[in-house]
Amino acid sequence: MAIYNLGSINADMTYRVPHLLAPGETLATSSLTRGLGGKGANMSVAAARAGAQVRHLGAVGEDGRWAIERLTEYGVDTRQIAVLPEATGHAIIMLDAAAENCILIYPGANRALSVERIEAGLAEAAPEDIFVFQNETNAQREAAELASARGLRVAYAAAPFDADAVTLVLPLLDLLVLNEVEAAQLERATGQGIDTIPVRDVVVTLGARGCRWINTDAGESRAFAALPVTPVDTTGAGDTFTGYLLAGLDRGLPMPTSIEMAQRAAAIMVTRQGTADVIPDLKDVTEHRF
Ligand code: ADP
Ligand code: NA
Questions:
Q1: 271 lines ligand 1 (CB under 6 A)
Q2: Whose CA is nearest to atom 20 of ligand 1?
């Protein structure tokens, strides 16, 4: 059993500033932290920390070898990550004293993947494996088709939301994970209620209100309350949730058990500053007292 993740890898560069930049303004900051980020990388790390065997399909530039090394240290199989001539994807994050932010994303290598390379990366994939992707790489439809043809369970985290991107892959999905805002956007784009989206399992995350699982086979919807925590930084909570959810399903755990584990992991994540580097491991998650 393995999880194949076609996903973005970003350098998250966070600059603390006294105020967010105004047009024409130049501002010096002495505070820079560089961390591993990107929805794809976050999900791979979360699933690996949850004990799953994770194969990351993606790309960085020459300036991103450190990101591959870090993913490897975190237990992710990085052999299918390409090093391309493009720049490594990055996010320039300005964070002011009131925790307001502005984020500029440059996708770079994340949007320069070749379908051939993805196909080679899936060569050993088997029907009991899971394929997951998000909307920060190119070749999403092609990759989902390849995975689906090999019989893998296909999961999609519809973020950052784009109506065209999700519509293109919707018929191929077995599992769709999205937050409340994205769910509303999908309803508007399809003119269909989220309960009737033709995907077998849909999980809508609701931040501090937990999440809702819709199983269209059974025509059932079930609510799960969030764990009580004091939020410090909600960045990466959704990615941690999805990584843990998939790791649970990959281990053969039922959906409710996998969701409960995912919620525990995500709740711990909102109490921590940072993204991939601070995702809790399975021991933290099972032993933590809320
Ligand atoms: P995203 O980060 O993708 O917008 P959400 O904000 O919905 O996703 O959060 C994903 C999951 O993280 C939630 O379903 C919940 O389990 C957990 N979570 C998020 N915010 C909180 C919070 N304030 N308290 C407890 N759990 C939270
Ligand atoms: Na966090």
A1: no
A2: 207
Q: Quick check: is 98 in a domain?
A: no
Does the annotation mark 277 as catalytic? no
Taking alpha carbons only, the member of 242, 171, 235, 234 closest to residue 203 is: 242
Distance 179 CA to ligand 2 centre (A): 16
The domain containing residue 129 runs over which residues?
Answer: 3-8+40-87+112-287
Å from CA of 209 to ligand 1 middle: 8
Q: Structure tokens of 174?
A: 């077995």
The reply to whether ipTM tops 0.95 is yes
Q: Is residue 216 part of a domain?
A: yes
Would you give the end-to-end CA distance of the chain in angstroms?
31
Q: Helices in 39-84 by DSSP H: which ranges?
A: 39-49, 65-73
Q: Is 211 a pocket residue for ligand 1 (Cβ < 6 Å)?
A: yes
Report which residue type is found at 34: R
When divided into structural domains, the chain yields a total of 1
Tell me if 13 is assigned to some domain: no
Cα distance between residue 14 and residue 274, in whole Å: 10
| Residue 208 is assigned to a ligand binding site | yes
pTM for this structure? 0.96
48: Cβ below 6 Å to ligand 1?
no
Q: Answer whether 229 contacts ligand 1 (Cβ < 6 A).
A: yes
- Report yes or no on 228 lying in a domain: yes
CATH of the domain at 188: 3.40.1190.20
Q: Per-residue pLDDT tens for 52-111?
A: 999 999 999 999 999 999 999 999 999 999 999 999 999 999 988 887 889 999 999 999
